[in-house]
Amino acid sequence: MKRRHFLEAIGATSATALWSPTAQGRSKARSQNRNRVRMILDVDSVGDDILALYFAAAHPDIHLEGVTTLNGASGSLEQANRVALRSLDIAEARHVPVYPGAEGPIVEKTEAEAAAPVHFEKTLQKFGERLKEFNAPAEPSTRAPETENAVDYIIDSVKSNPNEITLVATGPLTNVGLALDRAPEISRLVKECLIMGGVFTVPGNITPVVEYNIWADPEAAKIVFNAGMELTVVGLDVCEHNSVADAMMTRDDLFDLASSSSAAAKDICTRFPIYIDIWREFFGLVGFPMDDVIAVALAIDKTLCETSEPLQVDVELAGDLTRGQTIAYEGNQIFLREFPHAPRTRICRTIDGKRFMTLFKETISGNLEV
Ligand SMILES: [Ca+2]
């Protein structure tokens, strides 16, 4: 079916204006003389990290200063570096340096954690041939990562540019936690920090109360949540639950992106159908959740999500079921707890999913009207 026919069939002909080829390339012209968010993006480089890299590289209101990597859900630091470099190549952002970071969590996983059966891997087998596009090893880039370590780079950048740098972390919090541990003063020198991680009101994806990024390095997360930074938390509540289905990527969105000439859009259309299928068939979600992109998008548009008032949020370090749980102090409790800093953590409660997905597609396809 041609795109025009598809849109007519679903009664959305007006949307064609969004994808007008005449708007192509406007974003580059607009990017000059704009007051852009200076961003360091910390990634572990699986599916939605790639989308976050594409978005950050393409949006005219973001100046991507550097990308830092760590070992996370993609399996190794080397793979994270390769994926980050390759994604920046595709996004025509080869000028953005990539700094390798942590090879594992601050506290090593126990044998029991390492040996825990993973339901996901077994289920994947049924996807057969389609799996070759899922977390596929990236082709080598023509350039290498920087020699400076990610943690040193974060500390140096923040200290040299006080109140200028926005830190967005979309993987486990090891790099950010180590930077804050080594140089606590940067907590007041960062303009703000946004993280994708944690869960508050919907089921977790590791245990019913634990989300992957926090589970992967709870000690690092505890440092980050207790550092006194201006912190915005994109938890599973606004990305991985069908109550926010509007904010997920579906095959209809791939159809919209398919008319774009952007290399990032083409890559998404080639590689992401399997992600959409897996998240639908395994997690029961309407589409592929855009967790990491939401964290990046919030750095330029706070109105995309409704957030809590500033709260104290802490991380549970104990318990088979609860290690890595994020707990927000709300309401009134009998036990009094003193905190070292005033509350500065805002939790995302709701998201304007349709507006977010339109922003994503317009940014990736170079059709953004600003
Ligand atoms: Ca991630």
List the helices and strands and how they pair.
Layout: H1 3-9, H2 26-31, E1 37-43, H3 47-58, E2 62-69, H4 77-90, E3 98-100, H5 111-115, H6 119-124, H7 150-160, E4 165-169, H8 174-182, E5 192-196, H9 212-216, H10 218-225, E6 231-234, E7 248-249, H11 251-257, H12 263-271, H13 273-281, E8 288-289, H14 291-300, E9 305-307, E10 313-315, E11 326-328, E12 345-351, H15 353-365
Parallel strand pairs: 1-2, 1-4, 2-3, 4-5, 5-6, 6-12
Antiparallel strand pairs: 7-8, 9-12, 10-11
The structure holds calcium ion.
Residues 44, 46, 48-49, 170-171, 292 line the site of calcium ion (CA).
What is the CATH C-level name?
A: Alpha Beta
Radius of gyration: 20 Å
- What is the name of the CATH architecture? Alpha-Beta Complex
Please outline the major beta sheet.
8 strands, mixed
Q: Alpha-carbon distance between the termini?
A: 31 Å
- Main structural class: alpha/beta
Identify the CATH homologous superfamily.
Answer: Ribonucleoside hydrolase-like
Note poorly predicted spans.
1-31
Percent range for β-strand residues: 5-15%
Shape assignment: globular
Number of strands: 12
Note the run of SSEs as H and E.
HHEHEHEHHHEHEHHEEHHHEHEEEEH
Percent helix among the residues? 25-40%
At the fold tier of CATH, the topology name is Inosine-uridine Nucleoside N-ribohydrolase, Chain A
Number of helices: 15
Mean pLDDT across all residues, rounded?
88
Bound molecules: calcium ion
> How many domains make up the coordinates?
1
